[in-house]
Design goal:
It comes from Streptococcus infantis SK1302. The protein is an alpha+beta fold. It has 8 helices and 17 strands.
Amino acid sequence: MVKTFFIPNKQSILGQQEILTAKSVLALVDGLESHSYDAVYLRQPLNRLEYIECGIIGKSQFLFKVRYVDAQKGYQVIIPDLITRADWVIVEALLQALSSKVGESVEGLSDFDLEDYFQETVNNYLADKDAHLAFCQGILSTIYFDKKDLESFLEEDGLARFEELVKRVQGSDAYPASAKFYPDSEGKVHGIYHLAQGVKTILPKGPVVPVPYVEQLAGKDLVWEIDLVKISGDGSKPEDYEAVARLDYQAFLEVLPKELCQDLDANQVEVGPVSGKDFEALANR
């Protein structure tokens, strides 16, 4: 579920008002940036781009979209199904500024309530009985939540709980690990994560196939593993990194000392930094 707000372009007996450039739209809110196009493309009228994804670094937790629809002769501002109150302040500021610039009111704003929108979204997630784990894509990372999380979001101050979860995940200073995939001679595909010595790392509790690989790996026999990587020298050269052990992924998580882990959300754990005897012990298992 996403919400779309619409601002018609000003019409007069002289015709349609000039369509704003993407750069002009972004300039309406201080600090607002595009996360989908480089600056050179932003000089074009907005209708020449599919859309721009917007956010303010240091303030936004999620991105929202702005586009111009020729068929409707107007601007659309599209928010994701889950956002924080800080994100809504930015979106509303753009809506008001764009409305003032164009000279037309925002359709869909007067009856919008963020709390109601959040509650409706959470209920939609809970309605999917087959889903044991849900996620949303933040500006920096993916946030996972389970049924227990969702039910807590419906309680008093549920939006605040959601915001706390989002900030905890995206505020982590750990390296977010992602799997690399390699086929073997037996027709299996190995999904391999990496944990480097002395590097605090975010790992999934249950391995995840990234969206770009879902179709490609559908029906494949996946083997999940993790490489423990020793770092020598100052770590500035590729030869400074050496994989000293490859372990079954779930077996690795089971023997990982609890004091080296901290839960971030329903499917992510912050590990380490693991070094010294702890790293050697894991590598020798």
